[in-house]
Design brief:
The complex is a heterodimer. By secondary structure, chain A is α/β, with parallel strands linked by helices. Helices cover 23% and strands 22% of the residues of chain A. In chain A, β4 and β5 form a beta hairpin. In chain B, the strands form four sheets. In chain B, strands 1, 2, 10, 11, 12, 13 and 19 form a seven-stranded mixed sheet that branches. A seven-stranded mixed sheet of chain B has the order 8-7-15-16-17-14-18. Chain B is 32% helix and 24% strand. The chains are: A alpha/beta, B alpha/beta.
């Protein structure tokens, strides 16, 4: 690719994080008060870079050494594939208290907090998985509490390649609400979306109100795959994300590729070392 | 809902959502409500069914236009200056994470009955058919002066104090003719009328620099960028920022009546029989109609087309400015066009807007000079909306009301209003120093 084609401040963006892609780590930016709660990604690859980067971009603050790139998943084709790397937006849905954030924390950080506060400050997490021949980088969006009064913005669903609908197996109400979220997804989301139904809190067997059979039948009827999880004991948590990663459609050509990263710095100071050639 | 908040924000327009986000990040407890069941208020983007409901009173758009959900038609069409304040706010708050942008293909100006590309620097000035040979050279000199001008370096000032010299005097020094002044003032400095000629030249010089720096940023055909899926994405993104920092969101709340104590101070908001208490109320003019006055009207036409605007090099997104003088009007007219390339319409379709500050009650005849430039249209909707500004004293009633969106082509005035409101609400000045040079300095 000719360097001359690219506006200079874009050049150094590519590929800086490629060698980090297997680590699957979550990198936190701690630069200012807005950023410290936005875990950022370290990997970003796109096909046809020259054409994409010339005309599309997202605005992004300056890169730091540890985390330089946002991971704009391709909006139209849902999952962006570049070589064997896939970027996929995954959204969480479900009632308050079903354990959405706990599942993510277990998956991303291996943590569980008994009294997890209502979600504040978690915009999204990213986590990279190696699946067979490819790596899949999930960009996981939490609801940020906007589900509480049913005020999730259409933007939340836009471009999502996968969704996990979470309910609490000790609450029939949360299962009923999960069905509502499935309907909402079918209305708002992309028809090719991979959807998982997760009955969480599976460790609380003695308080169970929703049978696995009932949920399985519902899931099959609606084209979801079903699993029972426990963020507390970690049962089936990673497996669920792996299963989604496996089911993501692989080669989806980008119809209208999106997501050029704009870095907020003037041209003359770009780093030659990380320039693509 | 029956709780006490620091701030209750009413309406989810862009201004309210930016403020909600900034205040939540500051640690204030924010409740954000909207009477509609969708985000964005006046600054939303509508799908085809919503558009038909609003302008035609039915929900049956013709099937030939394609799927309703492929449309995102802005209600307040604007573009973002690539180097402008909205971009700074987006970067400062890291809301950029939720948005995807594309450059706007072209920037044009209407001059003597024809549409021309706007020359933005000395090189383009030399090529532009807008000027004759000698005028080109004069314009080139002027462009070079503006490009080199540095407020802090008196050597670039050519002996003039631009805070005292008027734009008219500055231009006279370069001997530019009225025609050149017209497109520089309106299509590059983006002035809405001719008042700038008698004001200090520094403002015009800064505006010209913003324009050329914005163009340079993406080396595209215009200084503008525009989000994929339409401007309606912007309020949603800032609402998410607010929610991420603990803001509570309630849509579809009818009434939203602001409650006052005996001193006239806002103390809460009532909806559906429940009252949430608060110390301050932030809202758009429609929620407190008794505390605003009408300041003008915007006439606009929204068109669905199957081709780009003629004579704009087939640009899939473009702005055309029709300076007031060219039309014999008091204020400029603006043409915007976006298309499927920005995901606001299905493949092959274009959305064009013609808008201006209304000077008559007849948008159809008033907007005709702009509409005539569009060629055939599939569908056209005419509309006039009223603009309001607050007349209350926020320090007394604790109500902070935004000004309605104006007819300008970009978001500079929108963000200025937000920043002023932020300062009134918090007593703080928002530090937007995450600007270009500061950001790169932090990197080294």
């Amino acid at each position: 690719m000719s360097r001359m084609l690219l506006s200079p401040f874009v050049k150094f963006l590519f590929l800086e994080g490629v060698e980090q892609n297997q680590k699957g780590e979550v990198v936190s930016e701690k630069q200012n008060k807005y950023k410290h709660r936005f875990p950022s990604s370290s990997l970003y690859l796109l096909p046809h870079i020259s054409s994409i980067f010339l005309c599309n971009f997202s605005l992004h603050p300056p890169p730091s050494i540890s985390s330089s790139l946002s991971g704009p998943a391709d909006i139209d084709s849902m999952a962006t594939i570049g070589h064997n790397n896939l970027n996929a937006k995954l959204v969480l849905l479900g009632d308050m208290g079903a354990g959405k954030s706990s599942l993510v924390l277990r998956f991303v950080k291996g943590q569980f907090l008994e009294f997890q506060e209502s979600t504040i400050g978690a915009a999204f997490f990213s986590q990279t998985l190696a699946v067979n021949d490819a790596t899949v980088k999930f960009e996981i969006w939490d609801t940020a509490g906007q589900e509480r009064y049913h005020s999730l913005a259409p933007m939340y669903y836009r471009g999502a390649a996968a969704a996990i609908i979470v309910y609490d197996i000790t609450s029939t109400e949360s299962f009923a609400r999960a069905k509502k979220w499935v309907q909402e997804l079918q209305k708002q989301g992309n028809p090719n979306m991979v959807m998982a139904l997760a009955g969480n809190k599976a460790d609380l067997e003695d308080k169970r109100k929703v049978t696995a059979e009932e949920a399985r039948v519902y899931a099959e009827e609606n084209g979801l795959f079903f699993t029972e999880t426990s963020a507390k004991t970690a049962v089936n948590v990673n497996d669920t994300f792996y299963e989604i990663a496996k089911r993501l459609p692989r080669a989806q050509p980008a119809q209208n590729p999106a997501g050029m990263v704009l870095v907020d710095r003037p041209a003359e100071s770009s780093q030659a070392a990380s320039c693509c050639s | 809902m029956d709780e006490e908040y620091d701030v209750i924000v009413l309406g989810t327009g862009l201004k309210e959502c930016i403020l909600s986000g900034l205040l939540s990040v500051d640690g204030l407890k924010v409740l954000h409500m909207d009477r509609n069941d969708y985000y964005g208020g006046e600054s939303s983007s509508l799908n085809l069914i919503q558009l038909w409901k609003r302008f035609k009173g039915n929900d049956k758009p013709p099937a030939s236009l394609g799927s309703s959900r492929d449309y995102n038609v802005d209600m307040i069409p604007k573009f973002m200056m690539a180097n402008g304040t909205l971009v700074r706010v987006l970067i400062h708050t890291d809301v950029t994470k939720y948005l995807y942008f594309k450059a706007v293909d072209g920037s044009y100006v209407f001059n003597k009955g024809k549409v021309h590309k706007v020359p933005a620097n000395d090189v383009e000035a030399l090529k532009s058919p807008l000027m004759g040979l000698f005028e080109k050279r004069r314009a080139r000199k002027f462009f070079i002066f503006v490009q080199d001008y540095d407020e802090n370096d008196p050597r670039t000032h050519e002996g003039m104090d631009l805070t005292r010299v008027t734009t008219r005097e500055l231009i006279a020094k370069y001997g530019l003719d009225d025609n050149t002044i017209d497109f520089i003032g309106h299509a590059i400095a983006l002035h809405r009328d001719d008042c700038y000629l008698n004001e200090p030249a520094i403002d015009t010089v800064k505006r010209m620099k913003l324009y050329s720096e914005s163009i340079a940023r993406f080396q595209g055909g215009s200084p503008y960028i525009y989000p994929l899926y339409g401007l309606g994405e912007l309020p949603q993104a800032f609402a998410r920022l607010s929610a991420v920092y603990g803001g509570t969101y309630m849509l579809n709340k009818p009434e939203c009546k602001v409650e006052f104590d005996e001193e006239g101070k806002a103390v809460g908001v009532t909806s559906e029989g429940e009252t949430a208490r608060c110390k301050k109320v932030v809202c758009d003019p429609s929620y407190l109609p008794n505390k605003v006055r009408k300041v003008g009207r915007v006439a606009r036409a929204i068109c669905i087309m199957s081709h780009p605007i003629p004579n704009t090099s087939d640009s899939h997104s473009v702005q055309v400015i029709l300076p007031q003088k060219q039309l014999g009007r008091k204020s400029d007219m603006y043409l915007f066009c976006c298309s499927y390339s920005h995901n606001v319409a299905p493949k092959g379709k274009f959305i064009a807007f013609v808008s201006t500050e209304a000077e008559t009650d007849h948008p159809e005849s008033e907007l005709k000079p702009g509409i005539d430039l569009l060629g055939p249209v599939d569908e056209i909707f005419y509309d006039i909306y009223e603009r309001f500004e607050p007349v209350n004293e926020p320090s007394l009633d604790q109500c902070f009301i935004s000004t309605s969106y104006d007819a300008t082509t970009h978001f500079e005035s929108t963000v200025m209003d937000v920043l002023n409101m932020y300062t009134m609400i918090t007593g703080k000045v928002l530090d937007l120093s995450v600007d270009l040079s500061a950001a790169s300095a932090a990197e080294e």
